[in-house]
Amino acid sequence: MEDNCIFCKIIKREIPGDIVYENEYVCAFKDLHPVAPIHILVVPKIHITSLQDVNDENLEYVAQIQKAFKEIAKITGISDKGYRVICNCGEDGGQEVKHLHYHFIGGKKLGAKIVHD
Q1: φ, ψ for residue 52 (rounded to 5)?
Q2: Tens of pLDDT along 65-83?
Q3: Sequence-ordered list of residues with C-beta below 8 angstroms from that of 10, at least 6 positions apart, any chain
Q4: How far apart are alpha carbons 14 and 9 in whole angstroms?
Q5: CATH number for the domain including 34?
Q6: How many domains does the chain have?
Q7: Known catalytic membership, residue 47
Q8: Buried b / exposed e across 34-62, counting CB within 10 Å, b at 16+?
Q9: Does residue 31 lie in a domain region?
Q10: Domain housing 80
Q11: Which of 3, 79, 94, 117 has the most crowded CB, counting CB atoms within 10 A?
Q12: CA angle at 74 for the pair 18 and 57, rounded to the nearest 5°
């Protein structure tokens, strides 16, 4: 864990987060600035800076995140309607928080691009 990482602080319950799903590997909580009715950030419970830092030692966390999407879809009631998963990587990729995270987005018909309302 990184001391100054906001996502690590949410995982450790040092700051509040509206957690919707959690297991040994994954923590998922509502985005503070949603772009859709359902916008959940899904993060590994260990600090991995970005997709570029995924390796054999932490790959199980990423695999568990992939499995978590299905559970989050059930919890949010959008399994049948569908959803979008986005992972930004690095500055040019739009990554703002330097902790690997996926945006789980749904609850409305999504167009080709996502914009803030």
Answers
A1: -65, -15
A2: 999 999 999 999 999 999 9
A3: 16, 17, 19, 27, 29
A4: 5
A5: 3.30.428.10
A6: 1
A7: no
A8: ebbebbbbbbbbbbbbbeeebeeebeebb
A9: yes
A10: 6-106
A11: 79
A12: 70
Residue 115 predicted with pLDDT over 70? no
Single-letter amino acid code for the residue at 30: K
Which of the following is catalytic: 39, 47, 101, 103? 101
Phi, psi of 90, rounded to the nearest 5 degrees: 75, 175
Distances (CA, A) of 47 to 4, 30, 38, 67: 11, 19, 24, 19
| 111 domain residue, yes or no | no
Give the model confidence (pLDDT) of 13-48 as tens digits.
Answer: 999 999 999 999 999 999 999 999 999 999 999 999
Asked whether residue 113 is assigned to any structural domain, the reply reads no
DSSP secondary structure of the chain: --TT-HHHHHHTTSS---EEEE-SSEEEEE-SS-SSSEEEEEEESS---SGGG--TTTHHHHHHHHHHHHHHHHHHT-TTT-EEEE---TTTTT--SSS--EEEEESS---SS----
Q: How far apart are CA 81 and CA 97, in angstroms?
A: 29
- Cα of 25 vs its chain's centroid, Å: 12
